[in-house]
Amino acid sequence: MQENKHVITMLVDNEPGVLARVVGLFGGRGFNIESLCVAETVTTGISRITIVTKANPPVVEQIEKQLNKLINIVKVRDLTHEDAVKREMALICVKASPEYRAEILRIVDIFRCKVVDVGLEHFIIEVTGDEGKLTALLNLLKPMGIKKIARTGTIALMREPK
Asked: Which CATH architecture has domain 4-82?
């Protein structure tokens, strides 16, 4: 059975040790976490954890059941095949030698990114989108010289009913 990427989101009590228990569950059972994002929600005392992992469906079902058994977990949901909005953000520091500056700015415009820092020999670009958009942008910038990158990993929310 082939492993697919799964986006698992959970609401948890915003208390010390909750994230450590969630991560410990994954690590202790040999599940790799590809990305992890945590932030408070609009509800006081509740945070949302979004984890991306590769696993086959029965393993994801097992992960969900084990997460639901943890204290301080309010709700767990696999958003992989759900009607959800999924986004990732990245900051990309790219070499901006004079011969590439105009081309980089054209790419930034096409991908609806923002240049958030400019130096004599670099641009720092902010981009938001799905994984495909980030991959395509990185492939175009790679020949110019990517110096460093920071990515958030996937965040996701279920779409509201219409």
From this structure: 2-Layer Sandwich (3.30)
